[in-house]
Amino acid sequence: MQWTRRPESSGNRLTDLHQQSFATVAHLFDGQDPRRVETYRMRAADLLPRFPAAHREALVRALEAYMTRLGAPAPALAQLARLRDPESVAVVTGQQAGLFTGPLYTVYKALSAIGLAHRLEQALGRPVVPVFWVASEDHDWAEVNHAYVLDGADEVRRLHLTTHVPERQMVHHVRPAPAEVERVLEEAYRWLPDAPDKADVLAGIREAFLPGGTMAEWFTRLLWRLVEPLGLVVLDPCLPDLRQLVRPVWRRAISRREGVRAALDEAYAAVERLGIEPAVVRDAANTTLFYVDERGRRFVVEDAGGGHLQARGHSLRLPADDWLRLAEERPTAFSSNVLLRPVVQDTLLPVLAYVGGPAEIAYHALARGVFHAHGHRLPPLVLRDRVQVYPPSVVRNMEKWAVPDEMGSRPVDLVSPALSRLGIDRVAEAMAGFVQESERRWQAFADALADLGPQVAAIAHRQLEREKAGIARTEAKARRLFEIRHEAEVRQLRHIERWLWTDGSAQERRLCPLNIWTQFGLAWLGELPFWGDFTQPGAVYHVRL
């Protein structure tokens, strides 16, 4: 196995500035330069007074019960116990609870957080615990109910759960039917190429699902299987005991809503002054809170004027004091939006650093306003490690066709240029000659009979278009015959394209772990030495198996 590091754009302008030119955007991120060890040293010193022993004990007890119930491996529980240490801090990352853990980058986020925690523990000489925040509050089922794999012919296949989920319902409450889980696993077995570990991997995934369990719980068990020896605390923010600990956040979001709105206005304006479009659409009436009804459905809590707040799309409308009372008495009735969630994290956990994707780094520049309104500062933000995996078959085909490594950094059409070199352009040239001949012939027809009126030209045009359509169909058939004749070459090149840039999307953003997991296992991933290297901002790691 070999790997190389190359600096590449994240695809997000603000995140690229954060990575490559931090001084130009330091004011948007509270000066938290993620490349400097001193940043983390100062952050840790600021954090510790906010997390007394009683809070730590309540946090650990809640997570201990949850993780034990889900069968957490010993290394994960050992990491959790270290959060009792008054000197300990946490590196946090998170993702939605996607089918089969969702895209590969979910696993890369977890490994980035584990690696960063290890590096910072060595640098600071204090316990640093990696924590994965399962975004079970999200209510967009369509974003998490599917996963993509490549079949034996390198065609992209979409595996998905068809479980009906009511609109607005949080994933925390979604319980896939056992029959649905069995069906999607059978589809995975049918579509995935034959591989030594295919049956065992899918059997393990089946075992991780317990009838009556939730999507978030299934996701958590799978994530532990992928990183088990390394130790990872997993947190579901919807746990009732954790909601008790964040009641102050709900109360501040209500009582300080005018201050939150003003701080957000300033944060949005600061981003826009750089000529950058904010990563989250501004909703001025949104208090950053959701109301959660008894069925687990989320409704935006908005300012209704006159000292009242209302749940958008719901009949609930109450004076602000009643909402404050509800937050105190029933904190499970609230949930955070994307800009408040980091503040909830910062209240529950001693967050030394947050590991996020390109969009997350960018929207933290907006969340800065919410942080300030709640009396907090942003944590240092570290871009998750981006990884491109090259299976041996892809490496062989790249060498055979002299495809340079740089091609792995962007989507490229490899097939068309290769077919041109093999002579497929002869088909287009021949068809172009037929088109020219048809145009000449029907123009001559129109000219010869022009005295009969303008209808003649129209007739000639219609006939020409019919012939051109027929020629186009013939050309497509001829091209297909050419491709069949050179099927081996086309298959090898498409194999490269589909593995590296699955249907035009980066491998890590489209494929779930199943193809790699079943063919090569995943233990080698945790052994790679680059995870969480905060001194190498903006790097993409290209790994040849």
Automatic annotation (TrEMBL):
<dbReference type="InterPro" id="IPR055398">
    <property type="entry name" value="Rossmann-like_BshC"/>
</dbReference>
<dbReference type="Pfam" id="PF10079">
    <property type="entry name" value="Rossmann-like_BshC"/>
</dbReference>
<dbReference type="InterPro" id="IPR011199">
    <property type="entry name" value="Bacillithiol_biosynth_BshC"/>
</dbReference>
<feature type="domain" description="Bacillithiol biosynthesis BshC C-terminal coiled-coil">
    <location>
        <begin position="426"/>
        <end position="528"/>
    </location>
</feature>
<comment type="function">
    <text>Involved in bacillithiol (BSH) biosynthesis. May catalyze the last step of the pathway, the addition of cysteine to glucosamine malate (GlcN-Mal) to generate BSH.</text>
</comment>
<protein>
    <recommendedName>
        <fullName>Putative cysteine ligase BshC</fullName>
        <ecNumber>6.-.-.-</ecNumber>
    </recommendedName>
</protein>
<comment type="similarity">
    <text>Belongs to the BshC family.</text>
</comment>
<dbReference type="GO" id="GO:0016874">
    <property type="term" value="F:ligase activity"/>
</dbReference>
<feature type="domain" description="Bacillithiol biosynthesis BshC N-terminal Rossmann-like">
    <location>
        <begin position="12"/>
        <end position="384"/>
    </location>
</feature>
<dbReference type="Pfam" id="PF24850">
    <property type="entry name" value="CC_BshC"/>
</dbReference>
<keyword id="KW-0436">Ligase</keyword>
<dbReference type="InterPro" id="IPR055399">
    <property type="entry name" value="CC_BshC"/>
</dbReference>
